[in-house]
């Protein structure tokens, strides 16, 4: 995870913004403050969201609760809730762009109190919560120029808010993710001369436990080759990992990279290629029983066309689940069986950026049940679009964002076939070529 690569991808992302007529600048325009539009409908969940580049939290279970601002300046980016819902991680940028200013990692309680900066050094990459405890792993870059190096930092968050510093070890990897048991990390090492692209299992002290070469080393004559695994998603049983193979060319990678599946318990077997897609970890999703992987397949950096939902079994066999003229994004499974898949679907669109039109007009949240039947779940006007499906654990309730403008919308709730608008005034960035990432909302369902 070298700083040079981060700079390259940030420049590419910024160019993408400019190509789309400045999505970032739109988000910077000041709008009215967010408001709770329906206090009679309560939901057993808490939500974090952005508005006017600032972060807000709201307890949807308390009908008297109103959006509480957490930040007042700069730009806030949601990282996510802790596994127990007590804490929210976010990154705050000093300026109004994540591409031109450093970001710093912060922590805040679910009720909006106790905000604390976790590190006075800028973070690189995406911080990640442990799946088993209130522990966060993230990377920072120290030094400058040829003396710069990247460190992996671990910190524990106690219930009383005390932050306990853990190990700081060299981050000699391209990307990382937690193993499901929370006792180890899976990292990826970039290919180089006489060195294959490799997955490395390491303990929390930074010591390698196992190494899994997943390709042959570059032969030295190739101009373009697979550089490293990124966006890794490990199956809940810890046996399989899905990931994207980033090329050594940023522009080529932006149009789609191989999606592969590797069996960590059978390392002698070669990775299985599932398809080609944009390298967004949010577009890879495992069922809780580790039997199925949902992913978005399709080339072209625009997120408004040629993006199809597909499913892969543990054996790597792929089933297409999309009509040819659709565009699908954001697959997420219900946490409990029978597993229902929720995703956004609309009609594929060759779209030139227009502030008066949706990027995918009429996009709705769809479901696919355990028998493979698909149907639209949400209903709305053609000039709106639905994003970020957030189902309750049993799949009976749904929170989602409905856009009524390209860069603003409302939080909606659906249960028993009825939709209710809960919060107005949620705004954010359309992202890199209309991927709407990072997410504008993060939902934690109360148990």
Automatic annotation (TrEMBL):
Keywords: Signal. Residues 1-27 form the signal peptide. Coiled coil: none annotated. InterPro entries: 6-blade_b-propeller_TolB-like, WD40. The keyword Signal applies. PANTHER family: PROTEIN TOLB, PROTEIN TOLB HOMOLOG. Belongs to the TolB family. This is Translocation protein TolB. The lineage of its organism: Bacteria, Bacillati, Bacillota, Bacilli, Bacillales.
